[in-house]
Amino acid sequence: KYRELVENVNDVIYAVDESGVTTYISPIVESVLGYSASDLVGRSFAEFVHPDDLQYASEGFLNVLSGNSTTGEYRLLTKSGEIRWMRTSNRPMFKENRVIGATGVLTDITERKRAEERIEHLNTVLRAIRNVNQLIAGEKDSKRLIKGACNELVETRGYFNAWIAMLDESGRLVTTAEAGMGKDFKPIVEMLKRGELPDCGRRALKQSGVIIIEDPPSTCVDCPLAQKFSDRGTMTVRLEYGGKVHGLMSVSIPRDLAADEEEQTLFRE
């Protein structure tokens, strides 16, 4: 009856031996990680921990082997390669006063983590916007202004990278600035010098809203940046003042945030 109870709770219950090899895991794991219980039994739990979190998870396991109960949060990789955040609670298993392994509970906290990351990101973007507004108020040199704006958007960790292209009334390139891209930006500059624009730029010049690209490789086939930053989304907007269009600004962000309406509203500012 205890097995039936364990196998009908939403959290994943598991047991590992002193080497970290899974000896039991509840069937609900398949709905969380995509692996059946039989896929995981006999395999090291460490195989499924995100590489960046492996040391943290290993230190926690060693703590359990020392006889202590532990809790922690780290990422696991699903069968399809997706990342899921887990909260773990572990306690040692004893036999004749010797630790022979551990039992634990895994709780999927991915949605909570995503919500926290979204709030943190939006707050970071707000700080960047305030810094850019201060820059606009104090900087009179246009080239330093756009370079400073790009730097602020990236250095506050609001965006992965940012670029601005200033255009004259006929649409010809006047100057550019970027942050977070380095030499990867050069093909875009050459493209702009030829009077060409990537798809996001062409669309942004035709409308006042934010142009969202969630999957650059399939959408922006003519953009030299699409393959280099294929795992990210982009937002592009035209720069307007006094009823005139003065150029373009584009930023790279986590793909899952690109369609966020609040994110777009902040970017338009």
Automatic annotation (TrEMBL):
Residues 70-121 form the PAC domain. GO terms for molecular function: protein histidine kinase activity. SMART domains: PAC, PAS. Its EC number is 2.7.13.3. Residues 1-68 form the PAS domain. It catalyses: ATP + protein L-histidine = ADP + protein N-phospho-L-histidine. The keyword Ligase does not apply. InterPro entries: GAF, GAF-like_dom_sf, PAC, PAS, PAS-assoc_C, PAS-like_dom_sf, PAS_fold_3, Sensor_kinase/Photoreceptor. Keywords: Kinase, Phosphoprotein, Transferase. This is histidine kinase.
